[in-house]
From TrEMBL:
Protein name, per record: Trimethylguanosine synthase
One term of GO molecular function: RNA cap trimethylguanosine synthase activity
Keyword tags: Methyltransferase, Transferase
One matching Pfam family: Methyltransf_15
Family recorded in the similarity comment: Belongs to the methyltransferase superfamily. Trimethylguanosine synthase family.
Biased segments, Low complexity type: 14-36
SUPFAM superfamilies (alphabetical): S-adenosyl-L-methionine-dependent methyltransferases
InterPro entries: RNA_cap_Gua-N2-MeTrfase, SAM-dependent_MTases_sf
Substrates-to-products reaction catalysed: a 5'-end (N(7)-methyl 5'-triphosphoguanosine)-ribonucleoside in snRNA + S-adenosyl-L-methionine = a 5'-end (N(2),N(7)-dimethyl 5'-triphosphoguanosine)-ribonucleoside in snRNA + S-adenosyl-L-homocysteine + H(+); a 5'-end (N(7)-methyl 5'-triphosphoguanosine)-ribonucleoside in snoRNA + S-adenosyl-L-methionine = a 5'-end (N(2),N(7)-dimethyl 5'-triphosphoguanosine)-ribonucleoside in snoRNA + S-adenosyl-L-homocysteine + H(+); a 5'-end (N(2),N(7)-dimethyl 5'-triphosphoguanosine)-ribonucleoside in snRNA + S-adenosyl-L-methionine = a 5'-end (N(2),N(2),N(7)-trimethyl 5'-triphosphoguanosine)-ribonucleoside in snRNA + S-adenosyl-L-homocysteine + H(+); a 5'-end (N(2),N(7)-dimethyl 5'-triphosphoguanosine)-ribonucleoside in snoRNA + S-adenosyl-L-methionine = a 5'-end (N(2),N(2),N(7)-trimethyl 5'-triphosphoguanosine)-ribonucleoside in snoRNA + S-adenosyl-L-homocysteine + H(+)
Amino acid sequence: MQSTSADSNAQNNSSKTTSTTPTATATTSTSTLLTPEQEKPQENQNSKKSAERFAERDEEDNFPARKRRKANDGSAVVQELTSTQRESSGAWISKYDASELVPHYTDASQVPEHLKKYFSQRYRYFSQYSTHPGCLLDEEGWYSVTPESVADQIAERCRCDTVLDAFCGVGGNAIAFAKTCQRVIALDTSPTRLALARHNAQIYGVADRIEFILSDYISFVKSYLSLTTSDPPVSENPNTTDADGPTKASSSQNHYSRKIDVVFLSPPWGGPSYLDGSASSENILSLTPSAKAKGKSKEHGPSTPTAEHPSYSLSSIQPIHGAELFDLSRKVTKNIAYFLPRNTRLDEISDLLTKEKERERNRLRNGSKNSFAQSTPNPDNEEHVEIEEEWMGNKLKALTCYFGGLVSGQEDMF
């Protein structure tokens, strides 16, 4: 797998790929491979129904044989349509037009003062922002949406059959995934943001590749795991014989077809003032001059240079501790892309794998049999995490941490 870089002249974004050992001071490299030892300092009924609906749809779709990730020839890339093309082709479904939910700003004079710095970057967030009837963002969406060029970079790294966007928001990442993946499952707890995401996806002509589900991620995963880890069902027809009933192979195929290849985690970081809550006198991360900037919320607005930058702890991730969120996701798949603040502590990122292995060792020591194959570490080859810095021009915006088969050199784990 080869990391690609967006054209900084065309998209004002760069993604460098130098590998280094993490230190207390951030380096200018943007792709870092860490081994765990290198750095040490309510489930609800709606979610269960959503997971069941997703699993049933997979079986009914009767997909052809799954393609290996590396064999994806780019056929999932979707051509963006003009408004006329969308309407004439029937790609625009009027009942999903969410224009009445939030205003579509066309001039800075219409924008609340605290959102003006984000509005000035609207075409970085959505290049099709002004395409009729216009991309829509609610207040949280303005400071949490991933810039399009960054989302496209991540989507290329995550190219696969089925990707789960755990916190889709207004759809920036889900739209990008729909260009490189065969299927996108987009979750959010806000019906408004989910409607805005579908609206925006229609503008890009990719809504048919995205399944929008109103659910919290934790409950959805628990329900999904309860379905996929159960024994494959046998025929419910008592008159069906073994000869003409579903074979073990066909049951296994249905079971396998439910598989999610990649999970993308972009959880809430704590709002625009998240640094005030996660910083402490003990957690100070000195940055190089090119990366000295005061942070954002999972936001991407202008930043102010500072001499020191308080580090961000995974304990500030919402709705649960960032490490717990990672552990839960690894039960779904080893292939995780974790979108984090640019000043996240590197030792905590490295510890994500360490804690997982400790948990697995404890499970084996206790003789538990309730294991998930996807979360079992490989005893022969030590797994690495790759950290990619996401830049817009000369500003560092965020980190994307890749695990499992998404890491360069670990494609065989996919």
